[in-house]
Amino acid sequence: MLGEYRITGRGASGIAADVESAVGSGALRPGDALPPLRELAAELDVNPNTVAAAYRLLRDRGVIETAGRRGSRIRARPATAPRDQIRIDVPPGTRDISTGNPDPALLPPLAEALAAAAARHARSPALYGGPPVDAELSRLARAALDADGVPAGPVGLASGSLDAMERVLTAHLRPGDAVAVEDPGWGSVLDLVSALGLRAVPVALDDEGPLAGDIARALRAGARALVVTDRGQNPTGAALSAARAGELRALLAGHREVLVVDDDHVHGLVDLPLHCLAGVTDHWALVRSMAKAYGPDLRLALYTGDATTVDRVRGRHRLGAGWVSHLLQHTLVHLWQTGAVDPEAVARSYGERRDALVRALAARGVTAHGRSGMNVWVPVSDETGAVAGLLQRGWAVAPGARFRVSSAPAVRLTVSPLARADIEPLADAVAEVLRGPAAGRYG
């Protein structure tokens, strides 16, 4: 069943640690079936309850999954093997459009903002017992949320979008709960769901966002939460339209018990209006990252939500990290107050490159998606072949496997490193590799 590998350990934690270590080293691979409880208990000379407890620990950590009579097996994407390990080596001289990073030329300089934050700290240092969120930051953030039609709610802070999402999910869910996720979707979210011991229920999407029929099926299957990207979806560039958002809000109105998490990670670099699902259900959160518009190393994301959700997240945060650095908060306030980023200009820059690439691919008979954000998603029939073929032609692209659960193969092209002169050569290379159109929706 496990080849030559033999699980060791006496207590539940020891057995679980041995399996987790074996997965991390590659000795146990995704899909490998674990021995039945009583069989492993007999082999280790321990009580079957001990093995059952070990398997529960592994399931809660996102290492294994249990499928009734089919037994337990290593997850297809265990928490110890994150999706960002699905990468290719980029040879010298190859253009790397695989990373998903913003264009450094569009990020604001931080020296003046950091100096202003340091000067403020010298006058009034943040100490234990103070408020977790700067009052001016909260006011400015809430005003921006109000302008986008986000329902009223307190503002909280986390160290990036994923940190906020993890805290929101764990505030309401327990291992084994089902979460509806976009497929294809952000690989880190798919990894997070697995690592928390939650069960991902894939939902297909098109250029206007998740499909209502798929969400309805996920809800009927028992999904207790839905994570949806409002615009600039990674990797497809999808953005919720007003019509699709209205359709989904009407659907969710009949499932008020479902936790809804809106991801608005590209705020500040898109010119499409926000159409969110926040406020339809009893528990909800909207997460707004500063990483794409102000810099990945400015580890700060805003979130708002219903009072219960925000109170739970803040309370748990207070027991751990305590708060997000006020130096970072004051830096962001300074950037906002001085208009360091022109959202319209940034959105226009990404949009021109993205739209030009989609048009150039279409002119060559290649289907591509990229309604918003900084990525273009190109369906392919052979993902490995497409990645290898483009690498031979001097372009490193992201394998779609990083972002997929059960959707069709594709590759992701990030437009951030591209100049206008790069568009036609890249489109030529993609067309040569694919040798014709690649049809079909994302799923």
Structural commentary:
With 443 residues, the chain is an alpha/beta fold. The protein has helices at 12-25, 37-44, 48-60, 111-123, 135-147, 161-172, 187-195, 212-220, 242-252, 291-294, 307-319, 326-337, 343-363, 383-392, 423-434, and strands at residues 64-66, 72-74, 95-96, 155-158, 178-182, 199-203, 205-206, 209-210, 223-229, 259-263, 284-289, 301-305, 375-379, 395-396, 398-399, 410-414. It starts with 11 loop residues before the first helix and ends in a 9-residue tail after the last helix.
Q: What is the radius of gyration computed over CA atoms, rounded to a whole number of angstroms?
A: 23 Å
Unreliably modeled segments: 436-441
Total beta-strand segments: 16
Number of helices: 15
Through-space gap between termini: 33 Å
Category by helix and strand content: alpha/beta
Binned, the helix content reads 25-40%
Shape summary: globular
Beta percentage is 5-15%
Output the strand order for the largest sheet. 4-12-11-10-9-5-6
Biggest beta sheet attributes: 7 strands, mixed
Give the overall average pLDDT.
91
